[in-house]
Design brief:
InterPro entries: ATPase_NBD (IPR043129), HTH_MarR-typ (IPR000835), ROK (IPR000600), WH-like_DNA-bd_sf (IPR036388), WH_DNA-bd_sf (IPR036390). The chain has about 400 residues and is α/β, with parallel strands linked by helices. Helix content is about 40%, strand content about 15%.
């Protein structure tokens, strides 16, 4: 066997072991060998190397069981770190996570308009601020920077109430390269819907079926698609772009609107602000009785159009579940999900099987958390695709899309 092949196999086996440990929490060397299919000697050699590298740690021996006491091996939370940045239509968020996906520190800044240069400068400042919180030794363990952004951000000026060319500068800015130069980290760009769906798959509780339609109620609605247990991007990288689905037009001669115009949170924000209610406070879950009837009215209309889109999607792909997450506070998210399930009961299901309608479990942090987790998975997973309930990886290109979610 050539040296390169041997090195590749060794790296694969290291990822295989680390993946098994991350999934289980902790395993003895014997359990690691059984879980990975490696020989006991091979598993022991690799585990010892990962212990020396600081990626694994030993826990106290477990006594009182049949046989010799065993020493559980676990992932070292400080063995690796990753940065995630979400550039949205309403805010920039950044998080620093450890090898376990735990958030170590975060930054957030809201704005009315995502002007290109100022927004990228803010993202770079946030990322470098988080890096500054690490000492030199831990700084060297940062594996990369993931960036979650809406697709074609320059094309949404009109929907944000701006002049058509107000965001044209996004055509010229390479956000991944700019942040890579600013931080010195290898950067990867993901669609924000892809990142949100990935977060739900990696650390969330909502996606447990092998097929699911993921709906993200962001400033503009979007989502993702899970097929055969894997996040599916589509041949043209548009899978899950439910915001672009047409809605029924009242005038047969009129051009149908898209779902993004009828079921996006930006519409709720505008009605709240018009009523003198701070939208940010309402969406944070503050107890604002005056916001309740406004939410109910918006949800009624949004659910009605979304339900038709869900049935249409189920007629094309036999999804087992529809998972709804997004910017809404948990109580509103649960009520919206229940309303959607009730609305779906009123459709003619002849020839179709209803899907289970479930709330997502992460909320507003899904996009930035997914952006942070994906570089870790790309570095330490043995798989090439993100798989349900695993810590496998997915790397998408600059225009990768699983929908048009976002804030």
């Amino acid at each position: 066997m050539r040296g390169g092949d041997s090195s590749g196999l060794r790296a694969y086996n290291e990822r295989l072991i680390l993946n098994a440990i991350l999934r289980a929490g902790a395993l003895s060397k014997a359990e690691i060998a059984r879980a990975t299919g490696l020989s006991g000697q091979a598993a022991s050699v690799i585990v010892n190397r990962l212990l020396e590298d600081g990626l694994l740690i030993k826990r106290d021996k477990v006594r009182g069981q049949v046989g010799q006491p065993s020493t559980p091996i676990a992932a070292n939370p400080s063995g690796a770190f990753s940065l995630g940045v979400k550039i949205g239509r309403r805010s920039v968020d950044a998080v620093l996570v450890n090898l376990l996906g735990e958030v170590i520190a975060s930054r957030s800044q809201s704005y009315r308009v995502p002007y290109p240069e100022a927004t990228v400068e803010t993202a770079a400042r946030q990322a470098n601020g988080l890096l500054a919180e690490l000492d030199e030794a831990r700084r060297e363990r940062v594996v990369g920077l993931g960036i979650a952004m809406p697709g074609e951000l320059h094309g949404w000026a009109t929907e944000l109430g701006l002049a058509a060319d107000a965001l044209a500068g996004w055509r010229e800015i390479d956000a991944a390269r700019a942040l890579e130069e600013a931080t010195g980290l290898s950067s990867a760009l993901y669609n924000d819907g892809t990142a949100a769906c990935a977060a739900e798959m990696i650390v969330g509780d909502g996606i447990v079926r092998r097929s699911a339609l993921y709906v993200y109620l962001g400033t503009f609605i979007g989502g993702g698609v899970v097929l055969d247990g894997r996040l599916y991007r589509g041949e043209q990288l548009n899978a899950g772009a439910i915001g672009s689905m047409p809605t029924c037009a009242g005038d047969p001669q009129a051009r149908p609107e898209q779902l993004i115009h009828r079921a996006s949170v930006i519409a709720l924000e505008r009605v709240l602000e018009a009523a003198g209610i701070e939208a940010a406070s309402a969406l944070s879950g503050a107890d604002l009785p005056a916001a309740e009837p406004i939410f109910e009215a918006w949800a009624e209309g949004a659910v009605a159009v979304l339900a038709r889109s869900v049935v249409s999607a189920l007629a094309v792909i036999d999804f087992e579940a529809v998972v709804v997450d997004g910017l809404l506070p948990p109580s509103w998210r649960r009520r919206f999900t229940l309303r959607l399930a009730e609305a779906l009961e009123g459709f003619d299901w002849t020839g179709l099987q209803p899907a289970e309608i479930l709330p997502g479990s992460i909320g507003p942090m899904a996009r930035v958390l997914g952006a942070a987790m994906l570089p870790l998975k790309a570095r330490f997973s043995p798989d090439a695709e993100l798989v349900v309930r695993s810590v496998a990886s997915l790397v998408v290109g600059p225009n990768g899309a699983a929908g048009e979610a976002s804030a």
